[in-house]
């Protein structure tokens, strides 16, 4: 029998007695691409952490064979030597170092006494060309966008002797051009005989890229099938155990008077050549879902930061809420005024990683539970926590678990819960479904409709055009900091939005 490149057999992994993986087996040949699909918290990242040695041998049950030999890794270093390289869901570059330094970190060319700078510079330039990233090797990583950082991670992987590349949700924050570059790189690697395991909630990418699709649900391996024999709906069916006949559960709801009037929002970074937000004015009605579309860098997030009082630079804006002018200069004043926001970058603004899931959810409203002598009424607090964990279907072994232990998508759901608990009049959602599985997306949309029916008004920034069109009542389109379009959802198409999002001039 032909020997597979990778053979993972019966992997079982538990966290404090809770099984995250329950006997998962996957195989892969040289030069093949396998996608692993499954709902948030189904165990995809955990399986990859077992494979790459993040979880060392003997911390799980089951066996891993690579090129015919059993792998007993005690760290990620051990698997890298074998040619298994993982790029994690959360990027791990050192921001204060240059691209070159990151690529060679712990992997320097030359003797320890005298590193061969010239060779490293040349090698970095070659690698950057291979991933089509047009920056100099000495550029600092913190000056790069998320997508560019992702490409540096890949360049770094290529610098090692990679035989199996693992990409855990690599495209969730990339622009469409960057996604194309990335998918092309995977195809090129495949042609060179390098295998790849690909994890993504974007099922169109999964189908266009993979030879095989493995589906896991609640830690169980459901099936591995040839991608050519599958449709997106087949994958969804296996992932959630039922068919989803509609992706966007639009519900009829009343839209009231203007609740928020934003005038002349302008925001600029020190030393920048043009403002990130350039004199933007718009209105939001009560009970309305207002979508904000635009390319990455068009100023959508920055506009939201102006409304929420957290823009990191010079800005000015006039905000009128329910007919009264409001000065919002901090998250605190925003919350007091009834505006809550789920931020785009959850790692930086959303959560306190080592704090419990429950406390992360109640953090903004702790005052509500103040009992005598400043103590906290924990019963009341846990009632709310349980309530919102159930409402958003946050998958966690317990509310007391540190939130950093939750899967990526479930952390995102907890942040949404945190915002809802402030009972805002206006809810700002910046890329709310990034990294969220199709079933959970559906639940979040249902929740948004339930909220607007209660009279909450929602602003949703999203890069996923089907979502913007499928959920919003009205869509604003931004381009280079300016507002370029204002459309009702009826008759709105992706083409109309794209044309508006890339148009030049006034
Ligand atoms: N270090 C940990 N401690 C405790 N539980 C953990 C830990 N890491 C993962 N888990 C749990 O294991 C389960 C699987 O998580 P995992 O991160 O593998 O999901 P995932 O399929 O990658 O989801 P997502 O699509 O949201 O990224 C989840 O219930 C998660 O809370
Ligand atoms: Mg994951």
UniProtKB/TrEMBL annotation:
The keyword tRNA processing does not apply. Keywords: ATP-binding, Cell inner membrane, Cell membrane, Membrane, Nucleotide-binding, Repeat, Sugar transport, Translocase, Transport. Its main location: membrane. One of its GO terms (cellular component) is plasma membrane. It comes from the Bacteria. PROSITE patterns: ABC_TRANSPORTER_1 (PS00211), ABC_TRANSPORTER_2 (PS50893). Residues 6-243, 260-505 form the ABC transporter domain. GO terms for molecular function: ABC-type D-xylose transporter activity; ATP binding; ATP hydrolysis activity. Pfam families: ABC_tran. It is a peripheral membrane protein. It is found in: Cell inner membrane; Cell membrane. This is Xylose ABC transporter ATP-binding protein. It comes from Marinomonas transparens.
């Amino acid at each position: 029998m032909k020997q597979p490149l990778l053979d993972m057999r019966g992997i079982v992994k538990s966290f404090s007695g809770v099984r995250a993986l329950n006997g998962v087996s996957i195989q892969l040949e040289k030069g093949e691409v396998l996608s692993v699909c499954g709902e948030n918290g189904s165990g995809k990242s955990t399986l990859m952490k077992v494979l790459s040695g993040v979880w060392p041998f003997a911390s799980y049950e089951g066996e891993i064979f690579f090129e015919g030999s059993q792998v007993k890794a005690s760290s990620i270093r051990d698997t890298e030597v074998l040619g298994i390289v993982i790029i994690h869901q959360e990027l791990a570059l050192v921001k204060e170092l240059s691209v070159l330094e990151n690529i060679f970190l712990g992997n320097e060319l030359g003797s320890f006494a005298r590193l061969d700078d010239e060779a490293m510079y040349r090698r970095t330039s070659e690698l950057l060309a291979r991933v089509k990233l047009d920056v100099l090797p000495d550029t600092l990583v913190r000056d790069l966008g998320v997508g560019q950082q992702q490409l540096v991670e890949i360049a770094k992987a290529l610098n090692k002797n990679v035989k199996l590349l693992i990409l855990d949700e690599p495209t969730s924050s990339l622009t469409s051009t960057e996604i194309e570059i990335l998918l092309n790189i995977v195809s090129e690697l495949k042609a060179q005989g390098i295998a790849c395991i690909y994890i993504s909630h974007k099922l169109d990418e999964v189908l266009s890229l993979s030879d095989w699709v493995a589906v896991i649900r609640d830690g169980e391996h459901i099936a591995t099938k040839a991608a050519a024999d599958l449709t997106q709906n087949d994958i969804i069916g296996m992932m959630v155990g039922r068919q989803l006949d509609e992706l966007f559960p639009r519900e009829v709801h009343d839209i009231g008077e203007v609740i928020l009037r934003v005038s002349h929002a302008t925001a600029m970074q020190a030393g920048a050549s043009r403002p990130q937000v350039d004199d933007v004015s718009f209105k939001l009605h009560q009970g309305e879902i207002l979508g904000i579309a635009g390319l990455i860098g068009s100023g959508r997030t920055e506009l939201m930061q102006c409304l929420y009082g957290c823009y990191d630079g010079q800005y000015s804006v006039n905000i009128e809420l329910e007919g009264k002018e409001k000065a919002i200069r901090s998250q605190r004043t925003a919350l007091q005024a009834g505006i809550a926001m789920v931020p785009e970058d959850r790692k930086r603004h959303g959560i306190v990683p080592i704090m419990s899931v429950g406390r992360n959810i109640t953090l903004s409203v702790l005052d509500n539970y103040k009992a005598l002598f400043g103590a906290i009424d924990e019963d009341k607090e846990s009632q709310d926590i349980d309530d919102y964990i159930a409402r958003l279907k946050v998958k966690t072994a317990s509310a007391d678990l540190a939130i950093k232990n939750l899967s990526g998508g479930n952390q995102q759901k907890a942040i949404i819960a945190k915002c809802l608990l402030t009972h805002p009049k206006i809810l700002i959602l910046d890329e709310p479904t990034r990294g969220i599985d199709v079933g959970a997306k559906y639940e979040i949309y249902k929740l948004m409709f339930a909220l607007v029916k209660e009279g909450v008004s929602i602003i949703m920034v999203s890069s996923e055009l089907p979502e913007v069109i499928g959920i919003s009542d009205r869509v604003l389109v931004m381009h280079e900091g300016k507002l370029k379009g204002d459309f009702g959802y009826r008759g709105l198409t992706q083409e109309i939005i794209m044309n508006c999002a890339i148009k030049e001039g006034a």
